[in-house]
Amino acid sequence: MTNEIEVITPSSEEKNIATVTHLGGTVFSFVPGLVVWLIKKEESAYITDQAKEALNFQITVLLGYLIASVLAWVLIGFLLYPIIWVINIIFCIIAAVAASKGETYRYPFALRLIN
Predict the structure, then answer these.
(1) DSSP string, 76-97
(2) Would you say residue 108 lies in a domain?
């Protein structure tokens, strides 16, 4: 007996849903990740994994904006808003490209709150 790990390649529909979930976060924040995770969590392990990853990242971005809002009282927060926005756009695009290829993407700065 060998200990081989079976790798399941996601279908094109699964790739498309994961891609849209990552890109949706750029406009709709955590909502696409939450909706896709709640709807598809029993149907596809790949979509579930990528929706949770997108949701965790968007929650992290939301917390970043909250911290920037508090720091806006000392004027440093105003500099953080555009930085957080650009980071969100860049990482969501990178994640969407990886998802469109069927790869499992992990955001480098995401808090893993949803397991």
Answers:
(1) SHHHHHHHHHHHHHHHHHHHHH
(2) no
Structural domain that includes position 64: 12-100
* Residues 99/19, Cβ–Cβ less than 8 Å: yes
For the stretch 42-101, pLDDT in tens is: 999 999 999 999 999 999 999 999 999 999 988 888 999 999 999 999 999 999 999 999
Looking at the chain, how many residues does it have? Answer: 115
Q: Label residue 50 exposed, middle or buried (CB < 10 Å: 0-12, 13-18, 19+).
A: buried
Tell me, what amino acid is at 89? I
115 within a domain of the structure (yes/no): no
Residue 63, domain member (yes or no):
yes
Domain count for the chain = 1
Q: Output the CA angle 89-61-74, nearest 5 degrees.
A: 110
| pTM score, whole prediction | 0.90
